[in-house]
Amino acid sequence: MWSFVFLILVTQAFGGVPLPPDVYWEQFGSTASGRQYSPLSDITSYNAQKLKLAWQWAFPFAVSSYQKATPLVVPTNPGSGVPPLLIFCTSPNVVYAVDAYFGKEIWRQTQFRTTVKGLGSCRGISFWENPYKADTAQCKNVLFMATMDMKIVSLDVTTGEPCFDFGVGAGFVHLSLPIQTWQTSLVSITAPPVVIDGVVATGCAMTDFVDEDMPKGRVWGVNATTGELIWTFMVVPSGPNDYGYNTWWNGTDGVGAANVWGAMSALPELGLIFMGTSSPSVDMFGGFRNGSDTPSDSVIAVEAKTGKIRWSFQTVHHDLWDYDVGAQPILTTIGRTNVVIIGTKVGFIFVLDALTGKPFYPIEERLAPKTMVPGDTSSPTQPWPKNKNFTLSNNYTINELTVWGPNTVERTSCLNFLYSLKGRQLGQVFTPPSLQGSLYFPGTQGGINWGSCSHDNRTQTLVCVVVNMAMAGTLYPRALAKPKFCSWDYDQKKTPFKFCYTVFKSNSGFPCVAPPWTKIVALNTTSGYKLWEKPLGYHPAPGYDKSWGSGSHSGAPVMTAGNLIIAAGTEDKHLYLFDATSGAVVNAIPMPYQALGSPITYRVNGTQFVVAISVENGVGAVLAYSL
Fold first, then answer.
1. Mean of the pLDDT values across residues 347-365?
2. Four-residue CA torsion sign, 128, 597, 325, 387
3. Which terminus of the chain faces fewer neighbouring Cβ atoms within 10 Å, N or C?
4. Containing H/E element for 6?
5. Alpha-carbon span 145 to 88, nearest angstrom
C-alpha cells in the first residue's frame, strides 16, 4: 500500500506527468548477453559530476573480504505491494533484498548459509520470470543462486522464500561431483547460474594447482521449474568418441579441472550457452596431459536444451600459466553477425562468430618459447589476434631493458631480483615455467579477469579494464625447500615438482614493470581501432604517482546510453565515471571501502541510480548514488 501512495506523491510532484518506465539490472552482466550495458541516459557524461549519495545500506554482520557480488535490480509480483528490489548474495550465501529506491531492507534469506571454506565468494545471482505461472503466483519471478556447497537454490523474488516445487521440496538441488573428503574445500560454485529456455545451468570452481587428480570439470543443466537434471556437459573428454580427446596425447585418466568457474552467457535466438573453461590440473606442469588439451582454456558453445557441445575455440594451448578463461563471454552483433567477444588473462581480445566459433577477425598462430622441463611438452605456437589493437597489455616482453623502477635504487633492486633467478628464462609472453626460475607477463590475475569487458552495440565501443603485473616463479623438486623469493606455494600432488611464485616487485614493493598497472581501454569493434586508454585508479601509498594506476582491480566496467562508463574496484576506493567518447574522468567519488564486485545502474520511480557494494576488513555497505 505504501508503495502505491508513494507513486501518487511522486506523480503529483511532477505535475501529473507519468514517470518514465523502470529499467532494471536483471542479470550479472545486465542481461544474459553479458554486455554490461544499460540503455539509460538520465545520468550522462555532462551531469555525472552532480551525483550524490542517495542512500546506503550497511551490512548487519561482519562481511567477508571475498565479498565480490554484483547486485541485481528486479521486479516483484504485480499487486504484491512490494517495490522493485535490489538483491545480492554474500560470500556465505546469505541473500539480502532492499528497496531499490529507498534502500530499506525488505527481506533476507539465511537458510542456505554455507560454512565451506577455501574458494568462498558468491559473485552474483540470476533472475528468471517463469512463463508457466500466473502473475500473482509464488515464484512467478525467481532468483537462482549457486552455492559454495554445490547447490542450486531457487527463491521467490517477492518474499525470499524457497520455491518448494524446485528440487526435493526444499527449494534446492544438490549437484553431484565425485570428490574426496579432503577436496571439499577445494570445490565450490562462485559464479551466478545462467537461465535460458527453461534451463538453469552452472559450472563450478576448483583449486587446480593442488592435485593432478582433481574432479573433471563439468556443467550441469537443470529444469528451471522443477530442478530435475536435464544434462551434464563434461569438459574433459573421457574417451576416443568425445570432443577433443585426440588432443590429449596421454589420455585423460587422472586429469581433472578444466572447469567453468566464471559467469556464462546465453543467446536465446540461437539456443546456445557460452562459457569459458580453465586450465587442466595441475596448472604449471603438464607432463601428464601433453597435447593442446582441447577444450580447456577455451570459449565453448553448448546447446541449452541438450548440453551438447556445438563448437570451441582455444585461447591458450597446453596451458602452463593458469591463463584460464574467467571472463564472461560478451554476446553482441557486428553488422548483421552475432559474435562472441572474449577478453583473456593474457590481455587478448578474440572476436568469434557466435554460430560457428570461427574467427570474425583474423587470428594467427605465433611461435612460442619451448619448455626445458623434463616430461613436459609445451605447445610450439599460441593464438594471437592479428590486429595489434586487440592485444591490450602494456608489453609482452620482459628482460633487462624493460625492467622498471621509479628511480635508480628501485630499478636496481628489480634488476637484482631478475639476476637472482639463476639460469632464468626471460623473453616474450608464454615463456614456460622452468626449474631455474621464470618471469611471466601478464601474471595469473591478468590481463582481463572475471569482470570481463563491456560493449555498447550502438556505438560499437568495447571497454576493458586491464591489469599489468608480472610474476616470478619456479618449479622445484618435491624434496627441496621452497626458494626464498616465493610468497605462494603450489603443492601439485602426484607430479615431480612443486611450484611457487611471487609478484615481480622491488624490495620496497614497487612493481618491476612499467605503469600503468591498471588501465581502462576503449576499442571500436567495427573498425578495430583503439579509441583511447587511461590509467584507472591509483595506489594510495606514499611515493606512488596517480598516473601509474591501481596495483589491482576487481569487477567489470559498465557502459550506458548516457555516453558514460562506470568503473570501480581499484585500491584507491573511488567510483569512477568516464566520458565514453574521450576517456576523460568526469567524476571520481570516494567510497569508504574498495568495491570488489561490479557497479550497476538502474531506474525506479523515475530516478536513475548508480550502485556499488563497498567492503573492507569485515564491514561494508551498499552505496546508491543519484542526481
1. 98
2. positive
3. N
4. helix 2-13
5. 10
Report which secondary-structure segment, H or E, holds 3. Answer: helix 2-13
To 10 degrees, the CA torsion angle through 348, 352, 354, 356? -130
Quick check: 287 and 248 in contact, CB under 8 A? no
Average pLDDT over residues 270-274: 97
User: Closest Cα partner for 560 from 535, 581, 575?
Assistant: 581
**In the numeric block, which cell numbers belong to residue 460?**
560499437
Return the pLDDT at 603.
Answer: 98
Chain centroid, CA 439 distance in Å: 25
**CA geometry: angle at 284 spanning 400 and 377, to 5°?**
90
Reply yes or no on whether the pLDDT at 8 is more than 70: no
Average pLDDT, integer, range 559-566: 98
CA 148/CA 191 separation, integer angstroms: 10
- Asked if residue 576 lies in contact with residue 564, where contact means CB atoms within 8 angstroms, the answer is no
Tell me, what DSSP letter sits at residue 215?
A: P
Of 579, 275, 332, 329, which is closest to residue 453 (Cα–Cα)?
A: 329
- The DSSP-derived string for 106-125 is EEEE-TT-----SS------
Phi and psi for 506 in degrees, rounded to 5?
A: -75, 175
pLDDT at 19: 92
Phi/psi for 455 (5° steps) reads -140, 130
What 3-state DSSP class applies to 149? Answer: coil
The Cβ of residue 132 has, within 10 Å, a number of other Cβ atoms equal to 9
Give bridge partners of residue 462 from the DSSP assignment.
455, 523
Helix or strand (DSSP H, E) at 10:
helix 2-13
Residue 366's pLDDT is 97
Residues 409-418: contacts with CB under 8 Å, at least 24 apart: 410/506, 410/508, 410/510, 411/506, 411/512, 413/506, 413/507, 413/508, 414/504, 414/505, 414/506, 414/510, 414/512, 417/472, 417/485, 417/504, 417/505, 417/506, 417/512, 418/512
Q: Is pLDDT above 70 for 466? A: yes
Tell me what the mean pLDDT of segment 172-195 comes to.
80
Q: Which amino acid is at 284?
A: M
CB 378 within 8 A of CB 320: yes
What is the per-residue pLDDT across 104-149, written as a single tens digit (0 to 9) for each? 999 999 999 987 655 568 999 999 999 999 999 999 999 999 998 8
pTM exceeds 0.70: yes
| 577-590 pLDDT, tens digit each | 999 999 999 999 99
Answer yes or no: are the C-beta atoms of 452 and 303 closer than 8 Å.
no
- Collect all residues with Cβ–Cβ distance below 8 Å to 95 and sequence separation of at least 6: 87, 88, 89, 108, 109, 112, 125, 143, 145, 155, 160
Identify the three-state secondary structure at position 156: strand
Q: Which of 118, 58, 116, 64 is closest to 91 using CA atoms? A: 64
**Cα–Cα distance between 522 and 565 in angstroms, integer?**
10
